[in-house]
Specification:
Helix content is 84%, strand content 0%. It contains 19 helices and no strands. The chain has a single domain, classed as Growth Hormone, Chain: A (Up-down Bundle). The longest helix has 29 residues. It is mainly α. It is globular. It starts with a helix and ends with a helix.
């Protein structure tokens, strides 16, 4: 039977809609709303960007537990809890009149949406809904997910230019909550059915730090987290600082999101040709190149070049995390393992925006955010290549 027939397309479509909305509503839209929030409130950029970083830390701390909950209880309770906590937190954010409430609301909502609704949950759910074709299931899901920034970046710009940032956040949050409830009751999968006791979280963590390929991949995940999170927050502000209007910069960032399809649609033949290892190196190299291009993206042609190059890198990297984890680690702990990688990526990634915000406040120069993103991605490509080379050499002796 062809692999396409073994994929549960209805479930993956609902998971795809959830992925689009949960990533889009606050994770992607934050960078578009950053300047309107600062302009309206007069709050410091360090404080506002720091709220996002705090949310990334909450994602990091909570994701391993979200993955564990998925392994034990199935997807429905995970999605329902994400909708409740995330919806309340984002509503509080929209009514904030001081940085304290904004900080807590942003950290809570972003943390809940991320820890309980990001790819470590939806990829694992997709794999378990289509156990005969896990790579295909991940690839199809992430093609849906590639539309998140393409839809939400211009949508957020449209909302904030016609209302204000507070109303925009409420509308965006409502879409995320609706998508989570839709997935909870339309795309639910049961807990992993593997019999016997499950490895502890400590065992899961130790497995990801095994010398060789596992450890190299974990370090790569951390560096990629720094690169992507910094790029996510500062792609629009850097282009605006370089001379592009907000709408044009948001549109270029949305095109970057759409160009993630360039890394996802051809991913299966790319992996077949160069392996998941070669595909990871290609993805990180493209992300690094995109960061360097962003530094000078003050015109529409350069901004579009950034969109294509960075879009390929980010687009390929997202499914490659799931594909590579499925190759390296045990199936009955896939949720916890993917959650741990989100923990690693988010915790490391939280350093990027707050440091970039501090530098911007201190120097008035936002392009350092693009420099940080490019450097972290380049380091990820080098680390991954070196650890793969050593592991292959060791296996031949």
């Amino acid at each position: 039977m062809p692999s396409e027939e073994r994929v549960n397309h209805k479930t993956i479509a609902l998971l795809g809609i959830e992925t689009i909305c949960v990533y889009g509503a606050w994770w992607y839209s934050f960078g578009v709303l950053l300047d309107p929030i600062l302009s309206d409130t007069g709050w410091s950029e360090t404080a506002v960007a720091g709220a996002f970083s705090a949310g990334v830390v909450v994602i990091g701390v909570g994701s391993i537990f979200g993955g564990r909950l998925l392994d034990r209880l199935g997807s429905r309770p995970v999605f329902v809890v994400a909708a409740l906590i995330g919806g309340v937190g984002l509503t509080a954010t929209s009514y904030a009149t001081n940085t304290g409430v904004f900080f807590v609301g942003t950290a809570t909502s972003l943390g809940a949406f991320g820890a309980l609704g990001f790819y470590h949950v939806t990829m694992t759910t997709a794999v378990r809904s289509s156990p005969a074709a896990p790579t295909k299931a991940i690839s199809v899901l992430t093609v849906w997910g590639a539309l998140a920034s393409a839809i939400y970046l211009p949508f957020a710009a449209f909302l904030v230019e016609r209302t204000d940032w507070r109303v925009s956040i409420r509308v965006l949050g409502a879409t995320a909550v609706a998508s989570l409830l839709l997935a909870a009751f339309g795309a639910s999968v049961p807990p992993d059915p593997t019999p016997g006791p499950r490895p502890t979280l400590r065992d899961v963590a130790a497995d990801t730090w095994r010398p060789g390929r596992a450890r190299g991949f974990t370090i790569t995940v951390a560096l990629a987290g720094i690169s992507f999170t910094t790029l996510l927050v500062y792609q629009v502000p850097v282009m605006v600082a370089a001379g592009l209007p907000l709408t044009t910069a948001a549109t270029a960032a949305a095109v970057r999101g759409f160009c993630q399809l360039l890394g996802r649609v051809p991913l299966s033949p790319l992996v077949a040709k160069v392996g998941s290892e070669g595909a990871v190196i290609a993805a990180m190299s493209a992300l690094a190149a995109g960061g360097f291009i962003l530094i000078v993206a003050g015109t529409t042609p350069v901004a579009l070049l950034f969109a294509v190059v960075a879009g390929f890198g980010i687009g390929a990297w997202s499914p490659l995390q799931g594909i590579r984890a499925n190759e390296l680690f045990k199936s009955n702990t896939l949720g916890a393992t993917m959650g741990l990688f989100t923990t690693v990526s988010s915790t490391a990634g939280a350093l990027g925006p707050v440091l970039a915000g501090f530098i911007a406040d201190t120097t008035g120069e936002r392009r350092w955010g693009a420099v940080m993103s490019a450097g972290a991605a380049l380091a990820a490509a080098i680390v991954f290549a070196l650890t793969q080379f050593r592991a292959e050499n060791s296996s031949h002796h």
